[in-house]
Design brief:
By secondary structure, the protein is mainly alpha-helical. The chain has two helices and no strands. It has helices at about 15-75, 80-115.
């Protein structure tokens, strides 16, 4: 059996083991540095995240306050007369749309068939 590769030469076993240990330590050190950098980023982002959550809560509270204000205004200042006028305007709008749709239907039937519908 040839064991010449085990004989001392330009590189010894101790040097190979030392190189492996050095590379392992280098990898662990890189992981530690990356971990510290990521932790620093998380710490820097954390106040921003908290501020964003606080702003969202404030917006939700303001939205609810605005809704309550609108309801209070509607209860206090909108009278039955205003509601009656709005209902009348909506009814007029619906009637007008029905008349326009009927006229459009008649014109389309006349254009397609060539005669006026009964």
């Amino acid at each position: 059996m040839d064991t010449s590769f085990l004989s001392p030469g330009p590189i010894t076993w101790a040097q190979i083991v030392a190189l492996a240990a050095f590379l392992f330590a280098l990898g662990k050190g890189a992981n530690w540095v990356i971990g510290k950098l990521r932790a620093g980023t998380k710490d820097a982002v954390s106040p921003l995240t908290i501020d964003m959550a606080a702003v969202k809560i404030q917006i939700a509270a303001q939205t609810e306050a605005l809704h309550n204000f609108k309801v209070e205004v509607a209860r206090t200042y909108v009278t039955g007369d205003v509601i009656t006028r709005m209902e009348r305007r909506i009814d007029d709008l619906v009637t007008s749309m029905r008349e326009e749709m009927a006229a459009t239907r008649r014109e389309m039937l006349q254009a397609i068939t060539g005669r006026r519908p009964d």
